């Protein structure tokens, strides 16, 4: 977490520990902290404060958008499961993506009609880093599905894209604090003024009856601090980390045979380095990286903790064997030049070690 | 040694981990995720993975989950379904040991520079005077699992550890209780992990193969009834073959799936003098001579003379024995009944 975001939380565990829904002076103090956080968040996202709803996490925001809209839904095959699962379970349509992870616009157009109630297309893909052209997507949705709400899962976008640039294009947008240096367990759903969703969590009527439940005051305040800081650093960090990422990928592809960059750099965010390595099993590679204290990922883990074959790579048409050698490295504000050097050494050494023994 | 411990989330592998730690080994616990479908007891259900992880935390060892789902489907589930369609009754737990624990996991361990793989099986690995590895019955005769790991050859035995093979199950549970392991009183797993107790084998197979009705005939060829699914009938079976009660006891003595004919006969008709065993594997060298032969996980070993026709093994029983359903594992032990010589599967 960002030190300032940690610092911002602390008073709310001690002297400012009131429930903002109360009616006494301490409650009013907590309430004010939330109101201010909401203003800050709205400012960075380019929406009105009344359009910001605080939730428990990105998954909740995604669920609240899809399930809250009700009716016929549609999303891309590369969405996070937080969108994909509610869409699939409610009988919605799933639109394919191309080899770079971009939603297939022809298929999207064909899937849209006057009955479509909600379309969800993520701003940035969480596994491979592909950036969606929300301008084109929104034009298609508005033209061919006039009754639909457009939602974007922007959980991976906050550090890398200027959200103000695409917020006006969508009706609903999800964010999660831990993706930009805030705490886990707090998120945002923006709901454009005038849009009605059926709340998935009901009760005390907090968040203007859009999301009941006692506010996570410390988390909300911290989220706002982290988001403002991430926004201020964004341009500089994008330049710095794109150079790091390029060096990481260039060196790996030069040193190790069979390292394939999954998505071209011009299509993706700076903080994502995703490759597929031929003749390698991700689980084995991750074990060696973990031993060397290099933390990386492959796809997403299921409830048991096992790595599941990536649905994103499958949707992109990456063959199962090659997808089994996926390596997903993330760069962020704490990444240094020396980290990149070490990652290059550790990954290339580990791949060489693994290739000595034939398996599978 | 650097040891990769296969942790099912049960008490045996939990205690195996504790013993390995006491012996000073560098241990990493691994739970294999094998089956992605419905399961109620098996080693892949999330609550079992939780148990394995929590025990690993107690033992202060790392715990990982390896997803071998594709391998499990290819080497265990698909053959299980395919064999049933051919009238063969395989033992999927043995195929899982053969292909997953002592092949896939062992190779993964090699690749990651581990010296050995350990499991919680009740079996022993000893050394003969000539250095050969011997696979022996576990110290607890009632829990002995040498039958289900009989396929281990010298290469695998050299890199395998069975830390609880030397102690009996009561002692395993006592140690687990003493160490405060959360799995101390967890019941033993009994059933095939990918088959649920509610649906059973019939539902599982029924979703995957088209059952065919069959004719039931007596040994003299006369029709005596019908069955709904000839694929679900196993040699030796007495119930569920649609015969009226009250008559003399009838047993399935043959199942001809291609022609959808089930033959029933008396108990005496089940007895044969010879057993043919396919795809033999050996502890070290192929064996011929007198041996004890065990045909189910806890069945009584019976004496017979083992001869080989090069590809298959023939057991000539000392006394006639009941027919063994094709696909069942047949394991040969030394006459002392201590060590495994080899094994294979009962032929059609």
Describe this structure in words.
- Chain A is an alpha/beta fold and 360 residues long.
- Helices cover 40% and strands 14% of the residues of chain A.
- Chain A has helices at residues 3-9, 25-45, 58-69, 81-89, 105-111, 134-144, 217-255, 282-291, 311-315, 320-323, 337-356; strands spanning 52-55, 72-76, 93-95, 116-120, 149-153, 172-176, 187-191, 259-261, 272-277, 300-301, 307-308, 326-330.
- In chain A, β2 (72-76), α4 and β3 form a beta-alpha-beta unit.
- With 348 residues, chain B is an alpha/beta fold.
- In chain B, α1 (11-22) runs parallel beside α2 (46-59) and α1 (11-22) packs across α6.
- Chain B is globular and about 65 Å long.
- Classes of the chains: A alpha/beta (360), B alpha/beta (348).
- Chains A and B meet through α8, β11 and α11 of A and α2, β3 and α4 of B.
What percentage of residues of chain A falls in helices of 4 or more residues? Answer: 40-55%
* Shape verdict of chain A: globular
| Low-confidence sequence ranges of chain B | none
Secondary-structure-derived class of chain A = alpha/beta
Estimate what percentage of residues of chain B fall within beta strands.
25-35%
Give the radius of gyration of chain B. Answer: 21 Å
Secondary structure tally: strands of chain B: 17
Largest interface comes to: A-B, 19 and 18 residues
Oligomeric description of these chains: heterodimer
Beta-strand residue fraction of chain A? 5-15%
Number of helices of chain B: 7
Number of strands of chain A: 12
Distance between the ends of chain A: 39 Å
SSE inventory with pairings:
The complex is a heterodimer of chains A (about 350) and B (about 350).
Chain A: H1 3-9, H2 25-45, E1 52-55, H3 58-69, E2 72-76, H4 81-89, E3 93-95, H5 105-111, E4 116-120, H6 134-144, E5 149-153, E6 172-176, E7 187-191, H7 217-255, E8 259-261, E9 272-277, H8 282-291, E10 300-301, E11 307-308, H9 311-315, H10 320-323, E12 326-330, H11 337-356
Helix pairs in contact in A: 1-7, 2-7, 3-4, 7-11, 8-11
Chain B: E1 2-6, H1 11-22, E2 26-33, H2 46-59, E3 62-67, H3 69-85, H4 92-111, E4 116-118, E5 123-127, E6 133-137, H5 154-158, E7 160-161, H6 169-178, H7 200-206, E8 214-218, E9 223-227, E10 251-256, E11 261-265, E12 271-282, E13 289-294, E14 302-308, E15 313-322, E16 329-333, E17 340-346
């Amino acid at each position: 977490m960002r030190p300032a975001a940690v610092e911002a939380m602390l008073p709310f565990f001690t002297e400012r520990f009131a429930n903002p829904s109360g009616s006494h002076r301490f409650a009013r103090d907590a309430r004010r902290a939330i109101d201010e956080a909401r203003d800050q968040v709205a400012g960075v996202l380019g929406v009105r404060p009344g359009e910001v709803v605080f939730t428990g996490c990105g998954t909740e925001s995604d669920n609240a958008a899809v399930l809250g809209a009700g009716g016929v839904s549609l999303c891309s095959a590369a969405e996070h499961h937080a969108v994909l699962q509610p869409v699939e379970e409610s009988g919605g349509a799933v639109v394919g993506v191309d080899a770079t992870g971009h939603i297939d616009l022809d298929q999207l157009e064909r899937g849209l009609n006057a009955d479509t109630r909600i379309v969800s297309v993520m701003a940035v893909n969480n596994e491979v880093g592909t950036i969606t052209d929300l301008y084109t997507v929104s034009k298609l949705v508005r033209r061919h599905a006039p009754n639909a709400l457009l939602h974007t899962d922007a959980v991976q976008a906050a550090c890398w894209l200027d959200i103000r640039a695409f917020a006006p294009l969508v009706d609903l947008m999800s964010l999660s604090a831990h993706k930009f240096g805030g705490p886990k367990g707090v998120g945002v759903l923006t709901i454009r003024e005038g849009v009605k969703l059926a709340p998935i969590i009901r009760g005390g009527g907090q968040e203007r009856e859009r999301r009941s439940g006692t506010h996570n005051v410390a988390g909300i305040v911290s989220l706002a601090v982290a988001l403002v800081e991430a926004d201020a650093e964004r341009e500089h960090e994008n330049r710095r980390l794109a150079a790091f990422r390029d060096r990481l990928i260039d060196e790996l592809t030069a040193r190790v045979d069979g390292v394939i960059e999954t998505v071209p750099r011009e299509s993706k965010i700076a903080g994502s380095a995703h490759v597929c390595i031929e003749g390698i099993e991700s689980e084995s590679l991750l074990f060696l990286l973990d031993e060397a204290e290099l933390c990386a990922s492959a796809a997403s883990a299921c409830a048991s903790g096992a790595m599941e074959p990536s649905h994103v790579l499958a949707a992109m048409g990456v063959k199962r064997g090659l997808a089994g050698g996926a390596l997903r490295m993330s760069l962020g504000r704490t990444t240094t030049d020396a980290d990149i050097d070490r990652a290059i050494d550790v990954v290339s050494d580990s791949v060489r070690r693994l290739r000595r023994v034939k398996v599978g | 040694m650097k040891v990769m411990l296969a942790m099912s989330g049960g008490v045996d592998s939990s205690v195996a981990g504790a013993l390995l730690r006491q012996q000073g080994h560098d241990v990493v616990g691994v739970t294999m995720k094998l089956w992605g479908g419905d399961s109620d007891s098996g080693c892949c259900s999330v609550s079992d993975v939780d148990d394995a992880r929590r025990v690993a935390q107690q033992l202060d060892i790392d715990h990982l989950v390896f997803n071998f789902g594709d391998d499990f489907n290819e080497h265990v589930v698909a053959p299980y379904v395919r064999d049933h369609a051919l009238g063969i009754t395989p033992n999927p737990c043995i195929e899982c040991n053969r292909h997953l624990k002592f092949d896939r996991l062992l190779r993964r361990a090699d690749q990651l520079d581990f010296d050995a793989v350990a499991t919680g099986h009740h079996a022993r690995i000893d050394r003969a005077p000539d250095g050969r590895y011997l696979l022996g019955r576990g110290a607890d005769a009632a829990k002995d699992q040498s039958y289900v790991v009989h396929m281990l050859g010298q290469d695998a035995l050299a890199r395998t550890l069975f830390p609880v093979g030397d102690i009996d199950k009561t002692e395993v549970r006592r140690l687990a209780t003493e160490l405060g392991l959360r799995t101390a009183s967890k019941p033993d797993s009994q059933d095939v992990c990918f088959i649920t107790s509610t649906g059973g084998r019939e539902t599982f197979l029924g979703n995957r193969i088209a059952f065919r009705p069959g004719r039931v005939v007596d040994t003299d060829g006369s029709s005596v009834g019908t069955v709904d699914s000839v694929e679900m009938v196993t040699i030796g079976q007495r119930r569920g073959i649609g015969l009226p009660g009250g008559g003399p006891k009838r047993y399935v003595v043959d199942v001809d799936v291609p022609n959808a004919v089930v033959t029933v006969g008396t108990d005496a008709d089940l007895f044969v003098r010879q057993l043919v065993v396919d795809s033999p594997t050996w502890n070290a060298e192929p064996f011929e001579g007198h041996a004890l032969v065990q045909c189910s996980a806890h069945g009584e070993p019976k004496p017979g003379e083992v001869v080989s026709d090069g590809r298959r093994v023939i057991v000539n029983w000392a006394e006639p024995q009941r027919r063994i359903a094709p696909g069942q594992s047949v394991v040969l032990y030394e006459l002392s009944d201590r060590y495994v010589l080899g094994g294979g599967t009962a032929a059609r």
